[in-house]
Amino acid sequence: GNAAGVTYTYNRFCIKILAADCRVEGVRVYDASSMGIGGGDGALRAIIRDNEVTAAADMGIFVNDNLASILPAYGLCANNTVIGWGSSTTTAVGIGIRGTDWRIEGNYVESTASYANEQLGIEVWHGGDRSIVVNNVVRALTYAEYGISLAAPHTSAVGNLVVGSTSYGIEAATTGPVQITGNTVIDPTGTGIALNISATTDADHTAI
Fold first, then answer.
1. SS3 sequence, the chain?
2. pLDDT of residue 51
3. 117 with 145: CB under 8 angstroms?
4. Strand partners for 63
5. What is the rounded CA–CA span in Å between residue 112 and residue 59?
6. Residue 118, pLDDT above cutoff 80
7. Cα–Cα distance between 16 and 61 in angstroms, integer?
8. pLDDT of 42 above 90
């Protein structure tokens, strides 16, 4: 997150994948100084599954694979639990993906904190093209600004449940196209589903 007057370093992980065909499964991470579990360049076909991350100081799970612009990552982030509140820190982003062709499925994210610029349950960043967010539960409550955010083209949010949020339950902010179907948003303080789409060609379209 980018809280006022606070500097965050994005290279500190408790566990970080930097090679192809690696798995992180069944791990518990508590009070990480920055990121709980993540991946960087070379994390192709990575599997991050059945883990629990509580009170990471910045992001619970974060994948930033710049090589994915050359090679599809084909990663899986599934059945993880990310809880924002802990003994001394609060998590800004539950799950963040900046790598192409990821599947984010069946995760549970709760109470990520409302920082200045980043405060999300699940976000697919620029560079996360063709990723799908499916069947996740995000309990944003009154803390997270966004439950789910799609900021890359050709992405999908399907069959998710978002409870609460202070701005948008589900947001699409990209050049499109995106698909947002079969989701449930309960008690958002702001907008349930928000589309901020800037289509680059006549062929681009968004399904909702």
1. CCCCCCCCCCCCEEEEECCCCCEEECCEEECCCCEEEEECCCCCCCEEECCEEECCCCEEEEEECHHHHCCCCCCEEECCEEECECCCCECCEEEEEECCCCEEECCEEECCCCCCCCCEEEEECCCCCCCEEECCEEEEECCCCEEEEECCCCEEEECCEEEECCCEEEEEEECCCEEEECCEEECCCCEEEEEEECCCCCCCCCEC
2. 96
3. no
4. 39, 97
5. 9
6. no
7. 10
8. no
Query: Cα–Cα distance between 83 and 106 in angstroms, integer?
Result: 15
Res. 153 pLDDT band, cuts 50 70 90: very high
Decide: 124 and 104 in contact? Cβ < 8 Å: yes
Tell me the mean pLDDT in the region 101-122.
80
Q: What's residue 6's pLDDT?
A: 38
Per-residue pLDDT band for 99 (boundaries 50, 70, 90) equals confident
CA distance 11 to 150: 23
Residue 55: pLDDT above 70? yes
